[in-house]
Amino acid sequence: MTRPSAWRSVDCLGVANRSLDWFSQAERDLDQAEDSQQAGRHEWACFASHQSAEKAVKALHLHLKQEAWGHVVARLLDELRPRIDVPQHLIEESRVLDGFYISSRYPNSHPEGAPFQHFGPLQSGDAIRYAREVVEFVRHQMA
User: Fold this and answer.
1) CA-closest candidate to residue 105, choices 115, 118, 117
2) Which of 102, 13, 100, 123 is nearest to 53 (CA)?
3) What confidence score (pLDDT) does residue 58 get?
4) 3: closest CA among 18, 12, 54?
């Protein structure tokens, strides 16, 4: 799947297709999630998992020559449904990931305590598993 960095596909209008760049970053973000989990930074593992899924789904949108905006992974997946059969469980799991977008980073998203005090191995494990499923779904669709 990885191509030389100088390689870029171009559509009929001469616009570079950056879907592989987005997908490569999604894979790297998933690696970061795993590294953060190993280091006990579960809030960052959750956020990186969300970012991985978001970038993977945006890669698929670009692969299909359509734009995608926003950070709600469940909605981004749902918007693919006219063209791709997206399993409902991926959308449900993405809703869990969407809950990490703000809460894993901002203290005022919780009644008290810093974000790191609200996340542990259970949350980061689920987040990584769900993001991995999204990434693998996208990999299969882009193959």
Assistant:
1) 115
2) 100
3) 98
4) 18
